[in-house]
Write a structure and sequence with these properties.
Order of helices and strands: HEEEEEEEEHHHHHH
Oligomer: single chain
Largest sheet: 8 strands, mixed
Strand order of the largest sheet: 7-1-4-3-2-6-5-8
Shape: elongated
Helix content: 40-55%
């Protein structure tokens, strides 16, 4: 068996395939680059926004500017200004620029865990739009900057808590006093003993209260008796009222008698001839007056006997 020679491929055919493969690869790479550039907005019309910050720590080229959680711009470059501040140049697509107004506020927020974010806040969307090339001062919301202050405050709080819970602290003394007061409440004297300080004083106070209640009961009885004696059906007020009524009646009788005397005296003065008849009439009238006066005197004596005061009453005949 004889070996037949294998025909050799031509060099031109291999070069053609290699060139074709290289061209296809370059087309793919260029297409991918163009697609990525288009996807990243390289061919979109944009306007420039410059944010001025004290430092650009955490901010990098290509970082997004977000509004309500949506990216509306991208950091193109970061510059150092003559005054020492950082200038963050951001490209904002024209189609998203209407979210930025002259009253918009920009902030760089850096979390304890996570990346730094540049955010825009617009409260009034009816304000004039932000012009191209506008410069705004950016606010910083660094959560890590508050950690030292929080640690210092936490340390101070722990020190105060340790001082409050120490064995010789005022809180422990107050709790001990509360415990002692609670023990007194559980004692024989109860709350009364806890208030007055000792069980003996509590017993004295209870005894005094009992005596006061007894005294009040007696006073109530005496008041009831006095009310019955003064204002009852057989009381002093009723007797005095009846006596005064009788006295008024007797005084009216005496007044009538005196009026008769006066009339007789006038008649006796006018008629001088009939002296014996006038004298007889005067004797009878004087007898009536004396009878009335005796009745009044008896009524006054009865009034003095029943009424708790006495006055000397003297009646004089004319």
């Amino acid at each position: 068996m004889t070996d037949e020679p294998i025909p050799a491929r031509s060099d031109s055919h291999l070069e053609f395939k290699a060139t074709l493969l290289l061209v296809v690869l370059l087309v793919l790479v260029g297409g991918a680059a163009l697609y990525l550039s288009y996807a990243r907005g390289a061919f979109e019309s944009t306007q420039k926004l410059v944010l001025i910050a004290e430092d650009s720590e955490g901010v990098g080229v290509g970082m997004d500017l977000t509004f309500a959680g949506f990216p509306i711009g991208r950091v193109r470059r970061i510059e150092l200004a003559d005054d020492g501040n950082a200038r963050i140049v951001i490209d904002v697509p024209v189609k998203d620029a209407h979210w930025l107004r002259q009253s918009s506020v920009f902030a760089i927020q850096r979390g304890v865990v996570g990346n730094t974010n540049i955010r825009a806040y617009t409260g009034i969307l009816t304000d004039p739009p932000l012009p191209d090339g506008a410069e705004r001062t950016v606010l910083r919301g660094d959560a890590t900057a508050e950690i030292p202050r929080l640690m210092a405050e936490a340390r101070q709080l722990l020190q105060n808590l340790s001082a409050m819970t120490a064995s010789e602290s005022a809180m422990n003394a107050s709790l001990a006093n509360v415990q002692a007061f609670t023990d007194k409440l559980k004692g024989p004297g109860g709350a009364m003993g806890a208030l007055v300080g000792s069980d003996a004083d509590a017993k004295k106070l209870i005894t005094a209260l009992a005596l006061a209640n007894t005294l009040l009961a007696r006073l109530d009885g005496l008041a009831a008796k006095a009310d019955a004696q003064v204002f009852g059906s057989d009381g002093l007020v009723r007797d005095a009222h009846a006596t005064v009524t009788q006295l008024n009646a007797m005084l009216l009788d005496a007044r009538a008698s005196l009026q008769q005397v006066d009339a007789v005296l006038k008649e006796a003065k006018a008629v001088g001839a009939n002296v014996n008849a006038a004298t007889t009439d005067l004797g009878a009238l004087r007898t009536d007056v004396e009878t009335s006066l005796r009745n009044v005197d008896g009524l006054i004596n009865e009034l003095n006997r029943k009424w708790p005061f006495k006055r000397d009453t003297e009646l004089k005949l004319p």
